[in-house]
């Protein structure tokens, strides 16, 4: 089995407060075999000189949509599944180029894309999928126009392919089971209104308590969990109270909601950059005035939500939630969060917390024996300069996923 020995490096394990010198890391196959502060004896290993750069685990983005390749998602109605998949391949490569070796898709991506990435057919990150996002009639998952009377064909409409409408606890239960049959790692439900959907107010209550409970019960019955799109305190409390494990967005969270999340052990997956990018550039890509007005309602709550969660002890994952042409801003999330959090806190959110969310503790987000060899070599210390994650991976000398280099400028 091929061995690679990383030498002459500064090691940043996110459990530490900063990089430490004098370490070596031995990779064997797709995993890390040894990490040592002393020289590692591995005579058959190929030596990789890191030139005193920082070696760290690959990044984890816990909220992406690799199939949603349009900012104005209505345009996906005209996109066949073949084109959707081709665009997704380019999107996935871009994420890996930026150092994201793992992403959690929260509505749209399917088992076929996951297998394509796992097998190396398409270059890109590890992919955790929710399958189709499930929501009620007239909710955030209902992509129909007001002139539509029936369900859109999922075979030729990329928008319809990514969403599922289910009303009533039994229908939600069946929809959740169907996504599990199709390989979902988690079940996504909508419990409040959204920005990119035209007809549902942000404060609308989507799904009854019985419907939320049905999704949670089915997910847990198969060893999965439920994640919920939610903005308002009431939506968050309704979801977490029924056992939802991760709240997506949560911009309008308040102190009581955060305390409930902490009590229940729920995670927040915040994504500030999506709202800033939409405010700045979404109009040029066709996003409607109504959608942008809703975006303005939640943008100011993003940083505040991080502060509230920190005070309450709620663990927050790194998420971007960017659509289409805005996905190039994925790494900008680091800079936005730095207004209220320290660099190492944000790095932990994009590594350690991401591993907890995806239930891969000890395998992802750390540099230790037995972990996957998902590694970055950074041209400097990101704890002192988060700008090293910017510019589409320009400052990453090496990107490794599963023991194989996606990029290598090292000798």
Under CATH, the topology of the largest domain is which?
A: TIM Barrel
Q: Class by helix and strand content?
A: alpha/beta
What do we call the CATH homologous superfamily of the largest domain? Answer: Metal-dependent hydrolases
Q: Beta fraction of the residues?
A: 15-25%
| Assembly classification | single chain
Radius of gyration, whole Å: 21 Å
Question: What this model shows, in words?
Answer:
There is one protein chain. Helix 2 links the parallel strand 7 and strand 8. This protein has 13 helices and 18 strands. The mean pLDDT is 94. The protein starts with a strand and ends with a strand. Strands 1, 2, 3, 4, 5, 16, 17 and 18 form an eight-stranded mixed β-sheet that branches. The protein has a five-stranded parallel β-sheet with strand order 11-12-13-14-15. A three-stranded parallel β-sheet has the order 6-7-8. The radius of gyration is 21 Å and the shape is globular. The chain folds into two domains: 99 residues, Urease, subunit C, domain 1 (Roll), CATH 2.30.40.10; 299 residues, Metal-dependent hydrolases (TIM Barrel). Helix 6 packs parallel to helix 7.
């Amino acid at each position: 089995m091929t061995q690679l020995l990383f030498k002459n490096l500064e090691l940043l394990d996110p459990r530490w407060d900063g990089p430490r010198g004098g370490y070596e890391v031995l990779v064997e196959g797709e995993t890390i075999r040894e990490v040592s502060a002393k020289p590692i004896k591995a005579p058959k290993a190929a030596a990789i000189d890191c030139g005193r750069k920082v070696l760290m685990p690959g990044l984890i983005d816990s909220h992406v949509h690799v199939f949603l390749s349009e900012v104005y998602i209505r345009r996906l109605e005209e996109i066949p599944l073949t084109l959707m998949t081709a665009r997704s391949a380019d999107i996935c490569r871009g994420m890996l180029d930026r150092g994201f070796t793992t992403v959690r898709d929260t509505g749209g991506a399917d088992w076929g894309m996951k297998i394509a990435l796992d097998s190396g057919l398409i270059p890109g990150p590890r992919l955790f999928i929710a399958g189709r996002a499930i929501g009620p009639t007239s909710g955030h998952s209902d992509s129909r126009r007001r002139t539509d009377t029936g369900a859109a064909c999922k075979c030729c409409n990329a928008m319809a392919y990514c969403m599922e409408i289910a009303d009533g606890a039994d229908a939600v239960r069946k929809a959740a089971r169907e996504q599990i049959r199709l390989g979902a790692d988690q079940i996504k439900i909508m419990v409040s209104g959204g920005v990119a959907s035209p007809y549902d107010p942000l404060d609308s209550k989507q799904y009854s308590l019985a419907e939320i409970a049905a999704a949670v019960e089915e997910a847990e019955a198969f060893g999965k969990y439920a994640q919920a799109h939610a903005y308002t305190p009431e939506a968050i409390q309704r979801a977490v109270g029924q056992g939802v494990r991760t709240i997506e967005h949560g911009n309008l969270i308040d102190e009581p909601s955060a305390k409930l999340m902490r009590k229940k052990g729920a995670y927040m997956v915040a994504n500030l950059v999506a709202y800033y990018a939409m405010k700045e550039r979404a109009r040029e890509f066709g996003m409607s005035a109504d959608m942008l007005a809703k975006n303005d309602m939640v943008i100011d709550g993003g940083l505040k939500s991080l502060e509230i969660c920190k005070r309450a002890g709620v663990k927050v994952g790194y998420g971007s939630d960017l659509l289409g042409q805005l996905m190039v801003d994925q790494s900008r999330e680091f800079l936005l969060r730095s207004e209220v959090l320290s660099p190492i806190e944000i790095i932990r959110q994009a590594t350690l917390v991401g591993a907890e969310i995806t239930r891969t503790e000890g395998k992802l987000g750390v540099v230790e024996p037995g972990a996957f060899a998902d590694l970055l070599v950074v041209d400097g210390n990101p704890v002192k300069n988060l700008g090293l994650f910017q510019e589409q991976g320009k400052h990453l000398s090496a990107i490794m996923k599963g023991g194989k280099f996606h990029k290598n400028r090292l000798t």
